[in-house]
Write a structure and sequence with these properties.
The chain is of the alpha/beta class. The protein contains 5 helices and 9 strands; from the N terminus they run αβαββββαββαβαβ. A 4-stranded mixed sheet has the order 8-7-6-9, with no helix packed on it. The termini are far apart.
Length: 153
């Protein structure tokens, strides 16, 4: 049996691996290689720090069935969540206490949205540098009202 037949799944990073940093597109050679692997029965799974909803754009390039998002905290098969591992409630309560006492920018990633409690020059500069839109502002209580899967402090 060939080595290719033994490979059950391959996980891929998105930015700079599946999608070119320069063109923001998936090269044709990548699409062809993915199609070959899929034809051999290999599961192809993008894995990223992005939440799953921010990987939906990949469908315009290739029909992935599964995604690993939020660095493994939230995994999906199609529209079904097959693994959910949000931060524990007690950890979020401690974070909210810290943010109330001494506010600092804290990006909170939920299942369907990314928000931030406050802005500073570093946040503005990051968004300018990466070309990303500013996250939606929120109050720190969001961390207590919904599941949070990733924090950027």
């Amino acid at each position: 049996m060939s080595m290719q037949n033994n490979i059950k799944a391959i996980f891929f990073d998105v930015d700079g691996t599946l999608i070119s940093y320069r063109t923001h597109r998936m090269p044709e050679s990548t699409k062809q290689a993915l199609a070959t692997l899929r034809d051999q029965g290999t599961a192809l799974i993008p894995a990223s720090g992005r939440p799953p909803y921010r990987m939906r754009f990949l469908a315009e390039f290739f029909p992935f069935e599964d995604v690993v998002g939020c660095n493994g905290q939230l995994c999906c098969r199609g529209n079904e969540r097959i693994r959910r591992f949000p931060f524990r409630r007690d950890a979020m309560e401690r974070l909210v206490d810290l943010l109330r006492a001494d506010p600092f920018p804290c990006l909170m990633v939920g299942e369907e949205g990314i928000t931030i409690n406050t802005f500073n020059e570093a946040v503005y500069e990051h968004c300018r540098h990466t070309g990303q839109a500013l996250p939606e502002p929120c109050d720190v209580e969001r961390a207590l009202r919904e599941d949070i899967f990733q924090l950027v402090i």
